[in-house]
Amino acid sequence: MIITLPGPTIGVVGGGQLGRMLAEAAAPLGVDVVALDPTPDCPASAVAEQVEGSFDDPEGVRELAERADVLTFEIELADPDVLESVRDEYGVAVHPSPETLRTIQDKLVQKQTLEDAGVPVPPFRRVDDVSDLEAAVEEFGAVMLKARTGGYDGRGNVPVHSVDEAEDALAELGGAPAMAESFVDFERELSVIAVRGDDELKTFPAGENVHEDEILRETVVPARTSDDVRERAEDVAHDVLSLLDGRGVFGIELFESEGGISVNEIAPRPHNSGHWTIEGALTSQFEQHARSVLGWPLGATKRRGIAVSANLLGDVEESQPATLEGVEHALSTPGSGLHWYGKHEVRPLRKMGHVTLVDDEKRDEDVTTDDLLETARSVVDELCFADGGDSPERGR
C-alpha cells in the first residue's frame, strides 16, 4: 500500500460526539470527514462537513458515497440494508460491514452468534410473549428484559424479579421484540476496545466501567482486577472479533464474575469506555478507527499510564440550552483533559462531555488509581449547567 497526503475522505453515518472526535483525530492524518446527521449543526459539523438527513436516509447515504472513499458509522441506528445497497451501487467500501451491523443491532442474534461460537455469555432466551418471559424468570430467577433493537443507556431495558412483573415489563417495552437475560452477580464490569485493521488485530488494555442506572459514569484503566482477568478479557475480545466482518473499532463490554468472563454487549464503533485513549494511549480509539476503515497500518495501543475518564451528564430536570459553568477549575487542574461535545441542548442525564486524568507513572510521588478518580470527580463536581443545579450527575 502506498499512502500519500492529503488523504482520502471518510463518510460517517452519524454526527454526534463520536463523529466529532473521529473527525478531530482524522484531521492530523490529512483525512477529511463528512457526516450524515438529522440535527442541524450537529456536534461533528464543527470539524467535518455535514449532510443533513436521517441515519437511514438512502439519498443521504448516497451523497456520502459520492463524496467519500469509505463509509462507516458511529451509531447503530444506521440501516444495514441501505448501506449494503449503496455499497453495491457505488462500489464504495463499508466498514464494519453491513452484515456485522445487522448481527449486532439485534441483541438476540448477537447473543446467539456468540453462544454458537463458544464465546461465554450470560444465560438468555427469546421472549415473544408474557409466557416466554414468565418461563425465563422461572428458569433463571431475576432477569433483565431487553428490547432486541434500539436500546441504549438503559433505554429498552427493564428488570424483572418475579413472574408477577412480566406483563407490566413487556408493556413497558411497548410490544417490541425482546429477549430475557439472566442477572449476573458480577464483581465488576469491564470493557475492551478492540480494533481490526486490514491484516492485524489489536486490543487496548482492559478498563473497568462504573455504571449507574445503566449509564456509564466512569472508566478506570487498567481495570482494578488481576492480570489474569485482564488478559482473559482481552482474549475474549479477540474471539469476538473473529466472528465479525469488516475493519474498525469495536467496544466490547464484559462481566467479571466468580464464574469468569462473559460478554454483555458489543458496539461496532468507538465506544464511550474508550474515551480515555485520547490522552491515555499512544493512539486514540478514534485515530485507530480512521486508520482501520481506510486499511492503513494501525497505531500502538499501549497506555501512557493510569487513566480515568468521567462523563459529564446533564444535571437538569428538563431540556434547556446548554451553557456549562465552572470550566476554570477543570482547566486549572494539572493533567485534566476536558472534552465538550458541542451539543446545543442539555437534557436530563444526556452525555455532554467528559474529563480525563492520566498519570504518566514517571512522577516522584506515588499516584494511585483512587487518587486520579477522586481528582476527576472533583473536577466534574465543579462543572454545572447554568440554572441546572449544583453539579452534574456523575453517578454517586
From TrEMBL:
Q: Which reaction does it catalyse?
A: 5-amino-1-(5-phospho-beta-D-ribosyl)imidazole + hydrogencarbonate + ATP = 5-carboxyamino-1-(5-phospho-D-ribosyl)imidazole + ADP + phosphate + 2 H(+)
- Its pathway? Purine metabolism; IMP biosynthesis via de novo pathway; 5-amino-1-(5-phospho-D-ribosyl)imidazole-4-carboxylate from 5-amino-1-(5-phospho-D-ribosyl)imidazole (N5-CAIR route): step 1/2
Residues reported to bind ATP: 107, 146, 181-184, 189, 211, 264-265
The reply on keyword Transferase is no
Q: Which GO terms describe its biological process?
A: 'de novo' IMP biosynthetic process
Please, which domain of life does this record's source organism belong to? Archaea
Q: Where is the ATP-grasp domain?
A: 111-294
User: Keyword Magnesium, does the record have it?
Assistant: yes
Top-tier EC class = ligase
E.C. number: 6.3.4.18
Which InterPro entries does this one have? ATP-grasp (IPR011761), ATP-grasp_carboxylate-amine (IPR003135), ATP_grasp_subdomain_1 (IPR013815), PreATP-grasp_dom_sf (IPR016185), PurK (IPR005875), PurK_C (IPR040686), PurT/PurK_preATP-grasp (IPR054350), Rudment_hybrid_motif (IPR011054)
What the record says about family reads: Belongs to the PurK/PurT family.
- What is known about what this protein does? Catalyzes the ATP-dependent conversion of 5-aminoimidazole ribonucleotide (AIR) and HCO(3)(-) to N5-carboxyaminoimidazole ribonucleotide (N5-CAIR).
Write down what this protein is called: N5-carboxyaminoimidazole ribonucleotide synthase
Encoding gene (name): purK
